[in-house]
Amino acid sequence: MKKILAITIFTVLFSCTDNSTLEVFDKDQQAAEVNVKGFSKPDVIQMRLNGQPISINGQNSYTDKIETKISFVLDKGETDDLEIYNSQTGTQIAKYTITYDNFKNYYNLSFFNLPGIFLKTYAVKPQVNLGKVGFQFIFPNLGEFSGSSLEGVKGILKRENGLVLAEFDNIGKNDFSAVKIYSFFSVSAPVYLELYKPGTTEPYSNQPLIKVTLKQDIGANMIVLQEKMENGNVVVKGDIDVADYL
């Protein structure tokens, strides 16, 4: 059964130990390393390698900012499972299958775990000057209900009167778009994000133009877009603001 030969920690408390050297005994083994950079709030989570809890600073479960390096030896033909669980409910949140052939794909592993959503990315709150509003977006379930095969969409952010506030050339599934900033104008007036196929003025799905109603907060807004079904129609919601957790 697979052995975790070394775990070098750099976590919430930002303390670390010296790297350990992995010994590879034959040509059918590889020294694998997974650099984890994650965030979970408010859930307390646990990471497990092949069912064995991964200890970080002596703790088997953790929350908030989570950063660690996991080092182990991979045997050819063997499958290793790195899993993330909710420590309180025992529910599996994510699973990564690592092999001799694909381990390099997991050298850097990022995640952002919030109530009801798991993002395979890491988020840093952008700097937005006083009196300004900044928006950035991610669209992790793009195509789930619309059937769209696109990997990203174009977004145009507008005021109620149609005035364009910002344009986003590509809002993708895996990473937040670049932040776009404009001057704050109201605590109550919503803004609207129209979604198009990249580089066009065509709706991104084979339906009428979808407009997402958004509440603008002064400062940074990091919105997770989600396709949902309402009364048989595809809609897109932008109710989750990652900036609220940072």
UniProtKB/TrEMBL annotation:
PROSITE patterns: PROKAR_LIPOPROTEIN. This is Lipoprotein. It comes from Chryseobacterium taeanense. It comes from the Bacteria. The lineage of its organism: Bacteria, Pseudomonadati, Bacteroidota, Flavobacteriia, Flavobacteriales.
